[in-house]
C-alpha cells in the first residue's frame, strides 16, 4: 500500500514537472495563445499519470495529441519543431513502456508511430533519420525492459508454485499424521472389539444363543466400521487425485444402514417416496452420511424411543427427515462434531439442513439436497 502511494506521488510530481516545462516553452516554440499553451502542456503531462497501468492508452493519447498539435498549431517563427521536444521525449518513454509491457502488435505500432511523429514534427528527411535513431534506442531499452519483466514474472510464478507445493506437502504430512494416529489408536481398538466379540462365546461360560447372536452382531458392526475406517485411512494417506477414486457409500447403501440400525435395537419407522434413480453421486453420498449421523445421534440420545425416517425423492430434490421422541434414559456423551459435520455435508452440495427440538421434547433433523449430478465439495470428516 505504501509503495503504491509513493508510485502515485511520483507520477504526480513528474506530471507537474512536465507541465511546468511544457507550458512556458510552448508559448515560445509554438504559435499559440496562453490558453492553448496550457492545453498543449496538459497533453504532454497527463498521459504519464496512467502510463504504468495503461501504457498503450497513454501512448495513443500522447501520439494523437502530438499529431493534432503538429497539424493544427505548428511551430512558431524561428523554430524548426512543430511538436515540443519535451513532448517527443515523453513519447519516447511511453514507446519504451509499450515495447516492454504490451503485445507485439502494439509495440510495432508504437515504434512506427514514433518515427512518423519525428517526421511530422520536423517535416524534413533529417527528421526521419533522427526519428529512426531515437526509435532504435527506445526499442533496445523497451526490449531490455521486456526481458527483465519476463524474468521477474517467471521468478514470481516459480515462487508461487513452490509455495503451493510446500502448502500441499504440509497438508499431506498432516493427513499422514492423522492417519497414523487413527490407525494406532482407533483401528487397533476396533480390531480388539471385533476379536473380543467373536471369541466371547468361546471364552465365556454359559453364553446362550441370544447372547451369541448379539456378540456376532457387535462383531459385524465393528468389522464394518473398521472397513470404513480403513477406507478413510486410505484417503488420508493418498494424494488428492488418488483420494477421489475411493468409493463412498451412497443412496444404494441406505437400506443396509437402516437394517443395521434396526438390528442394533433402534425401533425405526421408515417412509420412502419417489425414485432415487436420478440422484446424483454428490447428493447420494451426502444423503447417506447425514442419515447415518442422524441415526447415530438418535440412538445415542434417545435409544429407547422410536425413530421416524422419511426420505422423499423428487426430480429436483431429495428431502430427509429424522425425528425421535424424548429419550427416557440418560444420553451418552457426544463428540460435538456430528451437527457441524451434517451441516458441512449439506453445504457441500448447496443443500440446506435444519436441526432442533420438536414440540414434544424430541429432536428432528431436516435436510434438503439438490438431486443434480454436482461434484461433491471436499469437506472435513469421513
TrEMBL record:
Record GO terms (molecular function): ATP binding; phosphorelay sensor kinase activity; protein dimerization activity
GO cellular component: membrane
EC number of this enzyme: 2.7.13.3
Domain (Histidine kinase/HSP90-like ATPase) ranges: 282-373
Transmembrane segments: 6-23, 30-50, 56-76, 88-121, 127-145
Database matches in SUPFAM superfamilies: ATPase domain of HSP90 chaperone/DNA topoisomerase II/histidine kinase
Group of enzyme by EC: transferase
Protein name: histidine kinase
InterPro entries listed in its UniProt record: HATPase_C_sf, HATPase_dom, Sensor_HK_TwoCompSys, Sig_transdc_His_kin_sub3_dim/P
Keyword Methyltransferase: no
Residues in coiled coil: 148-175
Cleaved signal peptide residues: none
Keywords from the named record: ATP-binding, Coiled coil, Kinase, Membrane, Nucleotide-binding, Phosphoprotein, Transferase, Transmembrane, Transmembrane helix, Two-component regulatory system
Domain of life: Bacteria
Catalytic activity: ATP + protein L-histidine = ADP + protein N-phospho-L-histidine
Pfam families: HATPase_c (PF02518), HisKA_3 (PF07730)
Origin organism lineage: Bacteria, Bacillati, Actinomycetota, Actinomycetes, Pseudonocardiales
Amino acid at each position: 500500500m505504501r509503495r503504491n502511494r509513493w508510485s502515485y506521488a511520483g507520477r504526480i510530481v513528474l506530471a507537474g514537472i512536465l507541465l511546468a516545462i511544457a507550458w512556458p516553452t510552448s508559448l515560445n516554440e509554438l504559435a499559440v495563445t496562453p490558453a492553448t499553451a496550457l492545453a498543449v502542456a496538459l497533453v504532454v503531462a497527463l498521459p504519464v499519470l496512467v502510463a504504468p497501468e495503461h501504457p498503450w492508452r497513454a501512448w495513443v493519447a500522447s501520439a494523437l495529441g502530438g499529431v493534432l498539435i503538429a497539424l493544427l498549431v505548428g511551430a512558431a517563427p524561428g523554430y524548426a519543431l512543430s511538436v515540443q521536444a519535451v513532448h517527443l521525449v515523453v513519447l519516447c518513454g511511453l514507446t519504451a513502456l509499450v515495447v516492454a509491457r504490451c503485445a507485439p502488435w502494439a509495440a510495432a505500432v508504437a515504434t512506427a508511430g514514433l518515427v512518423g511523429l519525428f517526421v511530422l514534427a520536423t517535416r524534413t528527411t533529417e527528421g526521419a533519420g533522427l526519428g529512426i535513431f531515437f526509435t532504435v534506442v527506445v526499442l533496445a531499452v523497451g526490449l531490455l525492459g521486456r526481458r527483465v519483466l519476463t524474468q521477474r514474472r517467471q521468478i514470481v510464478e516459480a515462487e508461487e508454485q513452490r509455495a503451493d507445493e510446500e502448502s500441499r506437502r504440509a497438508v499431506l504430512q498432516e493427513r499422514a499424521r492423522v492417519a497414523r494416529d487413527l490407525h494406532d489408536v482407533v483401528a487397533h481398538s476396533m480390531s480388539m472389539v471385533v476379536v473380543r466379540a467373536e471369541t466371547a462365546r468361546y471364552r465365556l461360560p454359559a453364553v446362550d444363543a441370544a447372547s451369541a447372536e448379539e456378540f456376532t452382531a457387535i462383531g459385524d458392526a465393528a468389522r464394518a466400521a473398521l472397513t470404513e475406517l480403513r477406507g478413510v485411512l486410505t484417503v488420508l494417506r493418498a494424494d488428492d487425485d488418488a483420494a477421489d477414486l475411493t468409493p463412498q457409500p451412497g443412496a444404494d447403501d441406505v437400506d443396509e444402514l437402516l437394517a443395521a440400525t434396526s438390528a442394533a435395537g433402534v425401533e425405526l419407522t421408515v417412509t420412502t417416496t419417489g425414485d432415487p434413480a436420478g440422484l446424483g453421486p454428490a447428493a447420494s453420498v451426502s444423503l447417506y452420511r447425514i442419515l447415518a449421523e442422524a441415526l447415530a445421534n438418535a440412538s445415542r440420545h434417545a435409544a429407547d424411543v422410536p425413530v421416524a425416517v422419511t426420505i422423499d425423492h423428487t426430480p429436483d430434490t431429495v428431502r430427509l427427515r429424522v425425528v425421535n421422541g424424548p429419550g427416557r434414559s440418560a444420553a451418552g456423551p457426544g463428540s460435538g462434531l456430528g451437527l457441524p459435520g451434517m451441516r458441512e455435508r449439506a453445504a457441500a452440495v448447496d443443500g440446506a439442513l435444519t436441526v432442533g427440538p420438536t414440540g414434544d421434547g424430541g429432536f428432528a433433523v431436516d435436510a434438503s439436497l439438490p438431486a443434480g449430478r454436482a461434484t461433491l465439495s471436499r469437506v472435513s470428516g469421513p
